[in-house]
Protein backbone atom coordinates (compact mmCIF):
# COMPACT_ATOMS: atom_id res chain seq x y z
CA UNK A 1 0.00 0.00 0.00
CA UNK A 2 1.16 3.51 -0.71
CA UNK A 3 1.86 5.11 2.66
CA UNK A 4 1.24 8.51 1.07
CA UNK A 5 -2.27 7.49 0.08
CA UNK A 6 -3.38 5.50 3.10
CA UNK A 7 -3.50 6.10 6.82
CA UNK A 8 -1.48 4.09 9.31
CA UNK A 9 -1.32 0.36 8.58
CA UNK A 10 -0.50 -2.64 10.75
CA UNK A 11 1.26 -5.75 9.48
CA UNK A 12 -0.10 -9.11 10.60
CA UNK A 13 1.58 -12.48 10.24
CA UNK A 14 -1.68 -14.33 9.73
CA UNK A 15 -2.41 -17.82 10.94
CA UNK A 16 -5.26 -20.16 11.81
CA UNK A 17 -8.13 -18.94 14.01
CA UNK A 18 -11.69 -19.73 15.06
CA UNK A 19 -13.94 -17.65 12.84
CA UNK A 20 -17.66 -17.10 13.43
CA UNK A 21 -19.65 -17.69 16.58
CA UNK A 22 -22.20 -19.87 18.32
CA UNK A 23 -22.68 -17.58 21.31
CA UNK A 24 -26.23 -16.63 22.42
CA UNK A 25 -26.12 -13.44 20.36
CA UNK A 26 -25.21 -15.21 17.12
CA UNK A 27 -27.42 -15.16 14.04
CA UNK A 28 -27.18 -18.69 12.60
CA UNK A 29 -29.19 -17.73 9.51
CA UNK A 30 -26.46 -15.21 8.65
CA UNK A 31 -23.91 -18.00 8.33
CA UNK A 32 -22.11 -17.20 11.58
CA UNK A 33 -21.47 -20.86 12.47
CA UNK A 34 -17.96 -21.26 13.93
CA UNK A 35 -15.25 -22.78 11.74
CA UNK A 36 -11.49 -22.78 11.50
CA UNK A 37 -10.07 -20.30 9.02
CA UNK A 38 -6.55 -19.50 7.91
CA UNK A 39 -5.10 -16.31 6.52
CA UNK A 40 -1.68 -15.52 5.12
CA UNK A 41 0.38 -12.49 6.13
CA UNK A 42 -1.17 -9.15 5.18
CA UNK A 43 -1.24 -5.48 6.14
CA UNK A 44 -4.45 -3.65 7.06
CA UNK A 45 -5.34 -0.05 7.73
CA UNK A 46 -5.62 0.77 11.40
CA UNK A 47 -8.56 3.05 10.60
CA UNK A 48 -11.46 3.07 8.20
CA UNK A 49 -10.89 5.37 5.23
CA UNK A 50 -11.69 8.92 6.35
CA UNK A 51 -13.48 11.73 4.56
CA UNK A 52 -10.14 13.50 4.22
CA UNK A 53 -8.50 10.52 2.52
CA UNK A 54 -11.44 9.87 0.24
CA UNK A 55 -11.54 13.53 -0.74
CA UNK A 56 -7.89 13.30 -1.80
CA UNK A 57 -8.76 10.29 -3.96
CA UNK A 58 -11.86 11.88 -5.50
CA UNK A 59 -10.17 15.21 -6.17
CA UNK A 60 -7.15 13.49 -7.74
CA UNK A 61 -9.01 11.01 -9.92
CA UNK A 62 -12.34 12.72 -10.53
CA UNK A 63 -14.12 9.60 -9.29
CA UNK A 64 -17.92 9.91 -9.16
CA UNK A 65 -19.51 7.61 -6.60
CA UNK A 66 -22.56 5.48 -7.25
CA UNK A 67 -24.62 7.66 -4.90
CA UNK A 68 -23.61 10.74 -6.86
CA UNK A 69 -24.53 9.06 -10.14
CA UNK A 70 -27.90 7.87 -8.81
CA UNK A 71 -28.59 11.25 -7.20
CA UNK A 72 -29.60 9.89 -3.79
CA UNK A 73 -28.65 7.62 -0.93
CA UNK A 74 -30.12 6.32 2.35
CA UNK A 75 -29.82 8.57 5.41
CA UNK A 76 -30.84 7.78 8.99
CA UNK A 77 -33.98 9.83 9.70
CA UNK A 78 -32.65 11.04 13.05
CA UNK A 79 -29.82 12.89 11.30
CA UNK A 80 -32.17 14.93 9.10
CA UNK A 81 -33.21 18.45 10.17
CA UNK A 82 -36.70 18.77 11.68
CA UNK A 83 -37.81 20.88 8.72
CA UNK A 84 -36.52 18.39 6.14
CA UNK A 85 -39.25 17.61 3.58
CA UNK A 86 -40.90 14.16 3.69
CA UNK A 87 -38.97 11.44 1.91
CA UNK A 88 -39.64 7.83 1.04
CA UNK A 89 -38.67 5.32 3.75
CA UNK A 90 -37.72 1.67 3.69
CA UNK A 91 -40.78 -0.43 4.55
CA UNK A 92 -38.96 -2.86 6.84
CA UNK A 93 -36.77 -0.13 8.35
CA UNK A 94 -38.63 3.21 8.24
CA UNK A 95 -35.75 5.02 9.96
CA UNK A 96 -33.90 4.83 6.63
CA UNK A 97 -34.92 7.65 4.31
CA UNK A 98 -34.19 7.95 0.60
CA UNK A 99 -32.65 11.41 0.39
CA UNK A 100 -32.04 13.22 -2.88
CA UNK A 101 -28.60 14.81 -2.91
CA UNK A 102 -27.16 12.62 -0.15
CA UNK A 103 -23.65 11.38 -0.94
CA UNK A 104 -20.22 11.19 0.68
CA UNK A 105 -19.73 14.97 0.48
CA UNK A 106 -23.25 15.56 1.86
CA UNK A 107 -23.74 12.70 4.33
CA UNK A 108 -27.02 13.98 5.84
CA UNK A 109 -28.47 15.38 2.63
CA UNK A 110 -27.72 18.37 0.38
CA UNK A 111 -27.79 20.80 3.31
CA UNK A 112 -24.87 19.00 5.02
CA UNK A 113 -21.11 18.91 4.44
CA UNK A 114 -18.00 17.08 5.65
CA UNK A 115 -15.84 20.08 6.50
CA UNK A 116 -16.34 19.58 10.22
CA UNK A 117 -15.85 15.82 10.09
CA UNK A 118 -12.84 15.19 7.87
CA UNK A 119 -11.54 12.69 10.44
CA UNK A 120 -14.78 10.68 10.38
CA UNK A 121 -15.15 7.62 8.12
CA UNK A 122 -16.35 8.27 4.61
CA UNK A 123 -19.90 6.96 4.12
CA UNK A 124 -22.31 6.60 1.20
CA UNK A 125 -19.64 4.61 -0.61
CA UNK A 126 -20.61 1.48 -2.52
CA UNK A 127 -18.57 -1.67 -2.97
CA UNK A 128 -17.66 -0.34 -6.42
CA UNK A 129 -16.44 2.94 -4.94
CA UNK A 130 -14.37 1.10 -2.34
CA UNK A 131 -12.72 -0.99 -5.06
CA UNK A 132 -11.89 2.15 -7.04
CA UNK A 133 -10.24 3.72 -3.99
CA UNK A 134 -8.26 0.56 -3.29
CA UNK A 135 -6.94 0.45 -6.86
CA UNK A 136 -5.83 4.08 -6.59
CA UNK A 137 -4.10 3.34 -3.29
CA UNK A 138 -2.37 0.19 -4.55
CA UNK A 139 -4.39 -1.95 -2.17
CA UNK A 140 -7.50 -4.16 -2.07
CA UNK A 141 -10.46 -4.92 0.15
CA UNK A 142 -9.94 -7.51 2.88
CA UNK A 143 -11.44 -10.95 2.64
CA UNK A 144 -13.99 -11.64 5.35
CA UNK A 145 -11.50 -13.92 7.09
CA UNK A 146 -8.76 -11.27 6.99
CA UNK A 147 -11.13 -8.65 8.34
CA UNK A 148 -12.30 -10.85 11.22
CA UNK A 149 -8.77 -12.05 12.03
CA UNK A 150 -7.62 -8.43 12.32
CA UNK A 151 -10.73 -7.28 14.19
CA UNK A 152 -10.33 -9.96 16.86
CA UNK A 153 -7.03 -8.39 17.88
CA UNK A 154 -5.45 -11.72 18.80
CA UNK A 155 -8.31 -12.85 21.06
CA UNK A 156 -9.95 -16.25 20.57
CA UNK A 157 -13.74 -16.68 20.32
CA UNK A 158 -14.63 -13.34 21.94
CA UNK A 159 -17.67 -11.27 21.03
CA UNK A 160 -15.83 -7.96 20.70
CA UNK A 161 -12.30 -6.85 19.81
CA UNK A 162 -11.55 -6.43 23.54
CA UNK A 163 -13.45 -9.39 25.06
CA UNK A 164 -17.00 -10.47 25.86
CA UNK A 165 -18.25 -7.50 27.91
CA UNK A 166 -19.83 -4.80 25.78
CA UNK A 167 -18.82 -2.07 28.26
CA UNK A 168 -16.04 -3.50 30.44
CA UNK A 169 -15.88 -1.68 33.75
CA UNK A 170 -18.56 0.69 32.46
CA UNK A 171 -16.25 2.00 29.74
CA UNK A 172 -17.59 2.55 26.24
CA UNK A 173 -15.39 0.88 23.65
CA UNK A 174 -17.35 1.52 20.45
CA UNK A 175 -19.88 3.83 18.83
CA UNK A 176 -23.31 2.14 18.87
CA UNK A 177 -26.84 3.27 19.70
CA UNK A 178 -27.44 4.12 23.34
CA UNK A 179 -31.01 4.29 24.61
CA UNK A 180 -34.21 3.18 22.88
CA UNK A 181 -33.88 2.62 19.16
CA UNK A 182 -34.80 4.49 17.00
CA UNK A 183 -36.51 7.19 19.06
CA UNK A 184 -33.94 8.08 21.72
CA UNK A 185 -30.16 8.08 21.67
CA UNK A 186 -28.66 9.19 24.96
CA UNK A 187 -25.25 9.53 23.30
CA UNK A 188 -23.70 7.97 26.41
CA UNK A 189 -20.74 6.90 24.27
CA UNK A 190 -20.26 10.50 23.17
CA UNK A 191 -21.65 10.37 19.66
CA UNK A 192 -24.82 10.65 17.59
CA UNK A 193 -23.94 9.47 14.11
CA UNK A 194 -20.36 8.66 13.16
CA UNK A 195 -17.29 9.34 15.29
CA UNK A 196 -13.65 9.98 14.30
CA UNK A 197 -11.87 6.99 12.81
CA UNK A 198 -9.46 6.84 15.76
CA UNK A 199 -12.03 7.22 18.54
CA UNK A 200 -11.93 4.67 21.38
CA UNK A 201 -8.91 2.51 22.26
CA UNK A 202 -7.51 0.22 19.52
CA UNK A 203 -7.67 -3.56 19.75
CA UNK A 204 -4.69 -5.85 20.34
CA UNK A 205 -3.59 -5.54 16.72
CA UNK A 206 -3.85 -1.74 16.71
CA UNK A 207 -7.15 -1.47 14.81
CA UNK A 208 -9.61 1.28 15.68
CA UNK A 209 -13.39 0.95 15.51
CA UNK A 210 -13.43 -2.59 14.19
CA UNK A 211 -16.94 -2.80 15.62
CA UNK A 212 -19.49 -0.01 15.70
CA UNK A 213 -19.26 3.33 13.88
CA UNK A 214 -19.65 2.08 10.28
CA UNK A 215 -20.16 -1.22 8.52
CA UNK A 216 -17.17 -2.12 6.36
CA UNK A 217 -17.13 -3.74 2.94
CA UNK A 218 -15.15 -6.94 2.38
CA UNK A 219 -14.20 -8.69 -0.85
CA UNK A 220 -16.30 -11.82 -0.21
CA UNK A 221 -19.90 -12.76 -0.95
CA UNK A 222 -22.47 -13.70 1.68
CA UNK A 223 -23.41 -16.74 -0.44
CA UNK A 224 -21.73 -18.05 -3.61
CA UNK A 225 -23.88 -15.89 -5.91
CA UNK A 226 -25.11 -13.42 -3.30
CA UNK A 227 -24.37 -9.90 -2.10
CA UNK A 228 -21.07 -8.69 -0.72
CA UNK A 229 -20.24 -9.22 2.95
CA UNK A 230 -20.15 -6.30 5.34
CA UNK A 231 -18.65 -6.56 8.81
CA UNK A 232 -18.51 -4.72 12.11
CA UNK A 233 -21.90 -3.12 12.68
CA UNK A 234 -22.45 0.63 12.96
CA UNK A 235 -23.57 3.55 15.10
CA UNK A 236 -27.16 2.36 14.59
CA UNK A 237 -26.72 -1.11 16.09
CA UNK A 238 -28.69 -1.79 19.28
CA UNK A 239 -29.34 -5.01 21.18
CA UNK A 240 -33.11 -4.60 20.77
CA UNK A 241 -33.00 -5.28 17.04
CA UNK A 242 -29.46 -5.69 15.69
CA UNK A 243 -26.69 -7.35 17.68
CA UNK A 244 -24.42 -7.32 14.69
CA UNK A 245 -21.84 -5.10 16.38
CA UNK A 246 -19.76 -8.25 17.11
CA UNK A 247 -16.66 -9.37 15.23
CA UNK A 248 -18.36 -12.58 14.04
CA UNK A 249 -21.48 -10.86 12.73
CA UNK A 250 -22.03 -10.34 9.03
CA UNK A 251 -24.59 -9.05 6.59
CA UNK A 252 -24.81 -8.67 2.84
CA UNK A 253 -25.47 -5.78 0.49
CA UNK A 254 -25.48 -5.26 -3.26
CA UNK A 255 -22.33 -3.71 -4.77
CA UNK A 256 -24.13 -0.53 -5.91
CA UNK A 257 -25.70 0.11 -2.50
CA UNK A 258 -24.74 3.04 -0.28
CA UNK A 259 -25.95 4.24 3.10
CA UNK A 260 -24.95 6.72 5.78
CA UNK A 261 -23.41 3.99 7.96
CA UNK A 262 -21.26 2.13 5.46
CA UNK A 263 -17.53 2.56 4.84
CA UNK A 264 -14.39 0.44 4.37
CA UNK A 265 -10.70 -0.05 5.07
CA UNK A 266 -7.98 -1.46 2.80
CA UNK A 267 -5.45 -4.27 2.99
CA UNK A 268 -2.39 -5.31 0.99
CA UNK A 269 -0.15 -8.34 0.60
CA UNK A 270 3.51 -8.50 1.60
CA UNK A 271 5.91 -7.03 -0.97
Q: Please, could you describe this protein's structure?
A:
There is one protein chain. By secondary structure, this protein is an alpha+beta fold. It has a single domain, classed as paralog of FGE (formylglycine-generating enzyme) (Alpha-Beta Complex). 13% of the residues lie in helices and 21% in strands. The chain has 4 helices and 14 strands. It has helices at 51-61, 66-70, 127-137, 144-152, and strands at 9-12, 15-19, 35-39, 42-45, 72-76, 89-90, 93-100, 179-180, 184-185, 215-221, 228-231, 250-253, 262-263, 267-268. The chain has a 4-stranded mixed beta sheet with strand order 12-11-10-13, covered by helices on one side. A 3-stranded antiparallel beta sheet has the order 1-4-14, covered by helices on one side. A 3-stranded antiparallel beta sheet has the order 5-7-6.
Attribute tags:
271 residues; alpha+beta; paralog of FGE (formylglycine-generating enzyme); 4-stranded mixed beta sheet; 3-stranded antiparallel beta sheet; 4 helices; 14 strands; 21% strand; globular
| Name of the CATH homologous superfamily | paralog of FGE (formylglycine-generating enzyme)
Counted by DSSP, the helix tally is 4
Looking at the overall shape, the CATH architecture is: Alpha-Beta Complex
Task: Calculate the terminal CA-CA distance, rounded to whole Å.
Answer: 9 Å
Class, according to the CATH hierarchy?
Alpha Beta
Tally of strands: 14
User: What's the helix-strand series?
Assistant: EEEEHHEEEHHEEEEEEE
In angstroms, what is the radius of gyration?
A: 17 Å
For this entry, what is the oligomeric state of its chains?
single chain
**Total domains:** 1
Stretches where pLDDT is under 50 for at least 5 consecutive residues are none
* Percent range for β-strand residues: 15-25%
Helix content: 10-25%
Shape: globular
Remind me, CATH topology? paralog of FGE (formylglycine-generating enzyme)
**In terms of structural class, how would the helical and strand content be classed?**
alpha+beta
How can the largest sheet be summarized?
4 strands, mixed
Amino acid sequence: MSSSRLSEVVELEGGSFRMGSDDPWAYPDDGEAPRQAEVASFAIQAHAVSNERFAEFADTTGHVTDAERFGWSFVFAGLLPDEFPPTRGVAAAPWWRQVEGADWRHPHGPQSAIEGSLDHPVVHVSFNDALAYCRWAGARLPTEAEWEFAARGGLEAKAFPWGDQIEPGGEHRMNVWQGEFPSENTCADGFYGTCPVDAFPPNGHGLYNATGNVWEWTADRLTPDGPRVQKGGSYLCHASYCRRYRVAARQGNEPESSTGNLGFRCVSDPA
